[in-house]
Amino acid sequence: MLDNLSKSLCKIIENISGKNQLNKQEVEKVILELQRALIRADVDVELVFQLSEKIKSTVLKENAISTASDHLITTLYKELAKICGAETKFELKKGKPISILLCGLFGNGKTTTAGKLALYFKRKGKRAALFGLDTTRPGAMDQIEQIGQQIEVPVFIDKKSKDIKQVVEKWKSEINTYKNNFDVLIFDTAGRSMLDKGLVEEIKYITKEIRPDYRFLVLGADIGQSAKKQAELFKNAVGINGVILTKMDSSAKGGGAITASAMTGAPVYFIGTGEKMEQFEQFNSQRFVSELLGYGDIQTLMEKIEDLKKSKELEDTNISDISQFDLNTFYSQMNSMKKLGPLKSIISKLPLFSQKIPDDMLEVGEEKLKKYKFVIDSCTKDERKNPEIINLSRIKRIAQGSGVPEREVAEFFKQFKLMKTMLGEAQDGKMPKKYKNMMRAMEQQFE
Ligand SMILES: Nc1nc2c(ncn2[C@@H]2O[C@H](COP(=O)(O)OP(=O)(O)OP(=O)(O)O)[C@@H](O)[C@H]2O)c(=O)[nH]1
Ligand SMILES: [Mg+2]
């Protein structure tokens, strides 16, 4: 997601993380780099300017000649999170049906998103229904019909009518029945080009008649600088009160999209991350910025670990004293990693880990764990407690005893050593400085 922007931002953070204090020139240099990175990613120029002014005035308060690098990082994080929108979870009130209208220019993903939303609500135990209001594009009705069949959600369409007024009148006259039978009514509308005056008139008309509770603008992450114009167009026409970003999987730039919330004044509620119906998730601006800045999705990782600990699936492998870290603790760590399963995808987003841990160490499968167990069983008590004493002749002996090839035995000890070094450094407070900054930024966000 937004790989290029993320790379540039990570580089900026890396450069300042190493320094304690930054003087005014250095701050200005960082801001200049930030501006370049954001503009290259298609973030609106005016917004970039406002953001940089805000950061500058916050970190260099009262004509200070220098600032702590931590302060700059936390400010950067906070301000970026702000332009990506407030934290707003989409929640349904019990017993109160809602209607959602999707609008946007053509090809941005409205119809696909209508299906994704319906599936999202269905999985939450809600009764969702789709309504086709695209009487313009040939095949539009078939498309939404197929989507409905695929996700097993009722679809209301009028294939014969090409007259939007007729279709709207029909659904409007029956809307109370639908509201009694469903929790969420989702209306898919026609997409056109920005130059098409008829589009604005049509969407205004539909909104006036149907009076949807939510008017979501569907924006593709690949639209670049034109996001601002689109946002304004639909904001003025229907008073957008939510945004859904699609194609977050495929956009290299996406700057228009990340600032869509700032531009519409409406929160980004969801993002689409692929063509499949399941590739859809709630948007969380803090997590998003955290990933952009290379801190990875720490929150998700922590939640996952906590859940597993609660369900007792994960042993508590906290090691308070690094000298206690031996082959036995190493084995239980590996065992835990296996339980976390898809953690690899999360860990690989954490630069701290991804740089240090080889891929095959993150892919701990059943087979490998079995081998590790044989290796450990073939070690003497002394070797288990002090694996530092392992040498070539011991490796040979262990390989014979365990039936695991020498090369793999050697690899096992190499990985043990690597993990011990990493944990040692982490405990010395050398490595996680970046993470400490991040946590502080997150805390400050709520102050
Ligand atoms: N990669 C990717 N493709 C998507 C996503 N959302 C939609 N698409 C694709 O974008 C294309 C257009 O999607 P539609 O849902 O038909 O877009 P639309 O806005 O309804 O288009 P019109 O009705 O013509 O205005 C399709 O090929 C979708 O599969 C997404 O999140 N990721
Ligand atoms: Mg469509």
From TrEMBL:
GO terms for cellular component: signal recognition particle. Residues 267-280 form the SRP54-type proteins GTP-binding domain. GO terms for biological process: SRP-dependent cotranslational protein targeting to membrane. SUPFAM superfamilies: Domain of the SRP/SRP receptor G-proteins, P-loop containing nucleoside triphosphate hydrolases, Signal peptide-binding domain. PROSITE patterns: SRP54. Keywords: Cytoplasm, GTP-binding, Hydrolase, Nucleotide-binding, Ribonucleoprotein, RNA-binding, Signal recognition particle. Gene3D superfamilies: P-loop containing nucleotide triphosphate hydrolases (3.40.50.300), Signal recognition particle SRP54, nucleotide-binding domain (1.20.120.140), Signal recognition particle, SRP54 subunit, M-domain (1.10.260.30). The keyword Nucleotide-binding applies. Transmembrane segments: none annotated. Its EC number is 3.6.5.4. It is found in: Cytoplasm. It comes from the Archaea. The keyword Lyase does not apply. One of its GO terms (molecular function) is GTPase activity. Belongs to the GTP-binding SRP family. SRP54 subfamily. This is signal-recognition-particle GTPase.
